[in-house]
Amino acid sequence: MTWIDWAIVGLYxxxxxxxxxVFSRKAARTTTDxxxxxxxxxxxxxxxxxxATTFSTDTPLFVAxxxxxxxxxxxxxxxxxxxxxxxxxxxxxxxxxxxxxxTDVEFIQCRYDASPQRSVLRVxxxxxxxxxxxxxxxxxxxxxxxxxxQVVMGLDSDPVFELVLSQGxxxxxxxxxxGAVLLVxxxxxxxxxxxxxxxxxxxxxxxxxxxxxxxxxxxxVVSFSRVTENGxxxxxIKASAAYNPDNNLLGxxxxxxxxxxxxxxxxxxxxVVSWQTAPGTGYLxxxxxxxxxxxxxxxxxxxxxxxxxxxxxxxxxxxxLASMVFFPELADAESSFPKMINLMLGTGxxxxxxxxxxxxxxSTLDTHLNWGASYLVNDxxxxxxRPEAKTKELVLVSRxxxxxxxxxxxxxxxxxxxxxxxYKYLAVIIGGLGTVLILxxxxxxxxxxxxxxxxxxxxxxxxATEFWLANPKDAFGDPMLDVLGRKxxxxxxxxxxxxxxxxxxxxxxxxxxxxxPTEKAIAFCRDIRPAGPGxxxxxxxxxxxxxxxxxxxSTIGWLASIGFIYSLLLGxxxxxxxxWTGVAICSVIAIISVLVLKWVLKRSLFGDVVAxxxxxxxxxxx
Length: 622
Prior knowledge:
- The protein is an all-alpha fold.
- It has three domains: about 1-420, Sodium/glucose cotransporter (Up-down Bundle); about 420-515, no CATH class; about 550-620.
- Helix content is about 70%, strand content about 0%.
- It has helices at about 5-20, 25, 30-35, 45-55, 60-70, 75-80, 80-100, 105-110, 115-155, 175-225, 235-240, 260-275, 280-290, 295-310, 315-325, 335-345, 350-385, 390-410, 420-430, 435-440, 450-470, 490-515, 520-530, 535-540, 550-575, 580-605, 610-620; strands spanning about 160-165, 175.
- The longest helix has about 50 residues, at about 175-225.
């Protein structure tokens, strides 16, 4: 890193701080302005902001490392989520926008009748989702950022922060050079997030996304060119000392005929993990709530899906695979991405890439800080602690909450050593809640008791499977290894046991506790207008008009978008590896899918929601 590279990094930080100042007064007007940008975002800004947020520092490291160690098909751990997240576009985006809530936790307030269990559920979600899980993600992102900083600055791979609870006269908290860099960046992210709310977050995200795409595409092009100087990309990867011919490293899918643990895990990703992302949570929902209209919410999430699953994956995968040629023996696969940055990029463009990676760190932090603070203020402080609080006080508490979350994330970062294991733990716990989070929109019998039962079940079963199956040992007490010498991963079993065990618990509780529609359920059906057979009893009993054709049209749009996303994703990969038959097949599927998608969107965006502006005005006047 030369002074020019660091100047580029510094310029980004300055731009982010300036944007914080520019939007500070606008963000302080109301909590709606601070947390959902006054519901004013057009689809392209909201969608791009989502892509930038999910392009956190850990993402390229995780994808490059996973591609290198488990093969291309290992990416189905996150590719499979496209099945659920395209469903968000057609089944949930408009419904979320209609609720007019500030957070997804506040949804509880408009869905369930007032009761002690509703209050307990809301507080628990604030503490678990908004504080604990939120801080875990920020801690994991911090770990990823350390690997980037340590490689590009040539620093030792010491822990960034060390928290010592008892060591005589030694300090309780020590910080390394890497930690100092990250503290500065984290402090800057916290400051402009505190000042500008979601306005500053989304507009800094636009800058971050532009830097990230330029840097990663250039890195992938240079890496690909260097590898192919002496032959095709696939041939050079296979010739590297790191390549294992038994690993199916370059396959887009595992060997399903073998029906081994790898194949079973893939099927679990596609048929179990995938749909649990459908209802949307956290900052994903926050962006939907911040859009100008129902149409913008749908287009924002469709744009996010296209960028997330089509534009971004292959540069990371190419870099991870190319690292096998240049770094055949690498103990930490997740460090392959920053090592390739250091090796491949020259002065100037390296600064852009490092700025993009550090900007990704700040982008993820600012989103999680704003989102976590929205939970603490909107769903805990205002309803339960200070109902009479004025806007000025609420904005102040929001900013103080961000400081608290930052400190907690730094402390948690001292307890993790890897990225993937942390995400898998959260995926198992949160994934167990997927069924209830989907059906609370589409089945009138779901109640606060249902969600409480699901949370208790997911925590008990998920942690039990973590204890028994996360790190299986052999008869001698050593970690179990597969035929390739890798640690056996029973993630699929953990996910299936937790998901279906939790579903049995909460459905049973629902059938035992809910016998007739409540006032809130009836109002929800009338105001939010969910389609599907789960509300037929309420609609017929209360005389509520049915949304004709919407459920069927949404299903067709969902299937078409799945075909569109995956055909482009796999088609690009086929082109990289010169698999021209695959390119032709994917092209045909993409063309058919886009024609069907165009037909559905024309009716979904400009048919049923043609009176969207009038509905918005009416809702604001309530």
